[in-house]
Amino acid sequence: MTHAEAAHRIAQLTKEINHHNHLYYQESRIEISDFEFDQLLEELVRLETQFPDLLKSDSPSQRVGGTITKEFQTVEHEYRMLSLGNTYTVEELSAFDERVIKGLGHPNYEYFCEMKFDGVAISLVYENGQLARAVTRGDGTKGDDVTANVKTIRNIPLSIKAANVPVKFEVRGEIFLPIKEFEKINAEREQKGEALLANPRNAASGTLKMQDSGVVAKRRLNCYFYQLLGENIGVSKHDEAIHLIESWGFNVSPTYKKAKDIDQVLDYIEEWREKRFSLPLDTDGVVLKINDYDQREELGFTAKNPRWAIAYKYKAESAETELLSITYQVGRTGAITPVANLAPVQLAGTTVKRASLHNANEILRLGIHERDFVFVEKGGEIIPKITGVNTSRRKAGAPPIHYIEHCPECGTELIRKEGEAKHYCPNSQTCPPQVLGKIEHFVSKRAMDIDSMGTERIRALIDQGFIRSYADIYDLEQKQSELLGLEMSQDQYEREATGLLYISLEKALFALTEGISFKQIQDFLAETAHLTLREQLRGFQGQIRAWKKKVPSNVGMIDYLLQNLDQHADLMKVEDYVPVAVVLEIFLGRRVSFEQILEASKKHGTVHMILLELDLDLPSEIQERIKKLKANTFQEGVISNMMEGIFKSKEQPFEKVLFALGIRNIGENTAALLAKHFGSIEKLQEASDEQLLEINGVGETLVTSIREFFAQQENLDHISRLKANGLKFEIEQREEKVLGNALAGKRILASGKLQNFKRDEIVDFVQAHGGQYISSVSKNLDFIIEGEEMGPSKKEKAQKLGIPLISEEEFLKMVEG
Ligand code: IVH
């Protein structure tokens, strides 16, 4: 590419990337995937590296991060960062207003109202139109310099293009993590078994203090600006300043409004009391500020706060309701989360029926007894929380909540690891939600990519015993005939304490009759819900006549059902449900004994599985009838799709298979790294701790995870079964290009940015010339190719070990002779 072509392409990419950033931040829309976005960015970085003179300081590439800050520099603020006084009541607010009137000597002023954003305060200093520094509030006088991290926030201007921009100015605002991003991060953390972030504000503040700005760039922080400072800025009112910074490209929340007096402020407060929950971030109140700068000066400051501004904080709304029960959810990592089921109650504009209880300690701390009346609050967290118990309403003799000791899904005794608050189900191999999580990961796009196996299908296959681990997926091919007609959901079934399976009455009536829709049956049952089952069925016969659906068999079928229910009256134990065996007897009675049907219906959870066990040759008419008892079922198209996906997945390369195994802490990148380094699963398994640690990016935790994984016999069995099924457990021998042997016997590492090679290319190049590429600094190296911006710590280590550093040029000469 020529210089001119590169300049053209860089301009194009810059425009395109800025366009997508604008869409994302200003319009909450996306037109391309994250992956596509990253590709544009990568291309830009590549071109700018190749043509360094074309790199502009405000290029979007400057936001990808990558710098490591070990310790943040402390910087003094030019203007102190004050805090605001807080008020919680109308009276306190009126008192503030009176002080303002008194201070000014008249009531001719305007308030500028805006929301109080719950994030992290930041100050940005611009010099000559360029972002010079970003500093946290700290103690108000000095804060931490977090410029490298702030630069990664894609809608913070790195330079200002407008006319008449002051030589130096400062803007202040609040950095926040949008609630949606926060939820996404936590969902990912949950899946990886990592501790969850407490709330969006903590997440934002933690992110801002991360050492690796590359990681910060991946979290979509955002910022609202609310203050402009500097000498000779040319505005005399706050609203003018806000419009000005908005025109310079700063993000301003559209929630502001001017108020002529305190009554209009109160209107604003009311307007946003509920509406604020639809904003993309948490807010905890309203800030009102005198709009006119001269008036601000007249009013001045107290020791801590301005006299011209104050915050009104909404009280976290609280409601009292009854605790109905506690459900214990088992996450994909086996972590148990207790959830309170509450009598529905109105809170902050929504009906609350559930609240998180976090863990056993929380239940103890709150001292909850069964059926207690509890207080729920909606604060900074998204999920309402229980903040206390109204003990005066405690029912006599109500026992304290007894935390479960066994997994509600698989019955295994729960454990609690030292220092951890949560209980865990240790049965990672067969506990259904844990198996589901593992299999979902296994089939996911970035692992084995079997997209025809969605969650519902996997769950159906697990629940009905077809798969117990990901290795079983590859045995499904032999079970295709059993899958046909398999039920996808089990909502219509109930299982009674003795294990007997029941089916909803509506499904039973639907299958027993013809020409009557499911909806008609549901409506009829709803209308007659107050009657006994017998009365309902008699009434239904009358209704069949009224509907003129008097196919002779319809009324007769209901007679038959009534007779059968009488005969098995001892089995009628679940309201609105009938035993599956009683219904099936009507269809199958002449072919098989009731006892056999009964036995099978104790063993299995769906009609499909019962029929598989009974193994009868049924005429198609009866098969059609029985189909109406079932839920959605697997049909031929779905099955062949799945089989195709499963078959194709065998082509996935080793690194994907390694990632799919779900070894703790092995993400996609680590899997690729390990696959490349060791070449096969055996070599990885045999690797010593030292060999593992030698790899850049492998630490103690990962070594432990790898050891734990291979120590479990089940995992080894899964691997050997997957291998037998043709999955790739070694790296494909790429056609090794042999270009020469100038580097024979040499152990080489490259560090920093190279002019002529990308990361992968230098590895291939070294190997193609007979050398060995080593990925970390160790005494075994013959030399290091020193690229641009080689890390100082690496350099120091190399010098200590006496390893020669050579330039890229010298290296090329060495190879090319
Ligand atoms: S104006 C003199 N406006 O609240 C102080 N602050 O307690 C001027 N905050 O440090 C601050 N939203 O971090 C202002 N719309 C808003 C705000 C806001 C949140 C934070 C800010 C400040 C703290 C003051």
Automatic annotation (TrEMBL):
Keywords: DNA damage, DNA repair, DNA replication, Ligase, Magnesium, Manganese, Metal-binding, NAD, Zinc. Residues 738-817 form the BRCT domain. SUPFAM superfamilies: BRCT domain, DNA ligase/mRNA capping enzyme, catalytic domain, Nucleic acid-binding proteins, RuvA domain 2-like. Its cofactor is Mg(2+); Mn(2+). Zn(2+) binds at C407, C410, C431. NAD(+) binds at D34, F35, E36, F37, D38, S83, L84, E114, R137, E174, K289, K313. Its EC number is 6.5.1.2. Pfam families: BRCT (PF00533), DNA_ligase_aden (PF01653), DNA_ligase_ZBD (PF03119), HHH_2 (PF12826), OB_DNA_ligase (PF03120). SMART domains: BRCT, HhH1, LIGANc. It is an enzyme of class 6 (ligase). The active site is at K116. Gene3D superfamilies: 5' to 3' exonuclease, C-terminal subdomain, 6.20.10.30, BRCT domain, DNA ligase/mRNA capping enzyme, Helix hairpin bin, Nucleic acid-binding proteins. CDD domains: BRCT_DNA_ligase_like, LIGANc. It comes from the Bacteria. It catalyses: NAD(+) + (deoxyribonucleotide)n-3'-hydroxyl + 5'-phospho-(deoxyribonucleotide)m = (deoxyribonucleotide)n+m + AMP + beta-nicotinamide D-nucleotide. PANTHER family: CHROMOSOME TRANSMISSION FIDELITY FACTOR 18, DNA LIGASE. DNA ligase that catalyzes the formation of phosphodiester linkages between 5'-phosphoryl and 3'-hydroxyl groups in double-stranded DNA using NAD as a coenzyme and as the energy source for the reaction. It is essential for DNA replication and repair of damaged DNA. Belongs to the NAD-dependent DNA ligase family. LigA subfamily. This is DNA ligase. It comes from Algoriphagus taiwanensis. The lineage of its organism: Bacteria, Pseudomonadati, Bacteroidota, Cytophagia, Cytophagales.
